[in-house]
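Prompt: May I have another protein with tokenized structure?
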Amino acid sequence: MKTDLLSPFDSIPYFTIEGFRQYAGMEKPAMLLNRWMKAGRILPLKKGVYMTRRFYELHARDVSFIEAVSAIIFPNSYLSLEFVLQQNNILTEATYPVTSMTAKNTRRITNALGTFWYRNIRADLYSGFCAYEYKGIRFFRATLAKALFDFLYLRPIPAAYRKESANLAEELRLNLDEIPNEARDEFVLHVEKSESRKMANILGNFRSTVWKI
């Protein structure tokens, strides 16, 4: 049966239309893949890239599954912002899409697995992340300090929150009290590197409120 052609792909995170064409020896496999997609046998991750339903069912609950999917969709990125902050209990009030940073153009991709948002950042600030691997897929995740920096760097701060009397962490509902000292020190380094007046003011606010010495 033609569905048996999918079996080798059940054990890998994704396959491309070109890879399937070469394996199956089919000149134009698009029609067959579209039929499988409509039947739910395969899941489209982005144009020309698929995951089998079987792989999804076996691994969707794995800790690093969705992070690897983010890298499959857009390799030139690192997980950050709300996604990482929520994992570290800095944000606790909502469920967010999978958020990443890229030096490329901002883009949002929605597929059967969820919504993946890639936000642009200056090339010289494209740093502060560590490499991981899942099922042969290399992905990158920001440190806690860099995820916090990215979140605040991109977020517009209302004028009312910029007053000296404001507790910015409280206003933005950020749980910053328990952040380790090493993460605070790293946050300072990112602020200094950015040479951003906005971020310097935010750091000053944190030092006078939640990070008092």
About this structure: The first helix runs from residue 17 to 24. The chain has a mean pLDDT of 93. The chain has nine helices and nine strands.
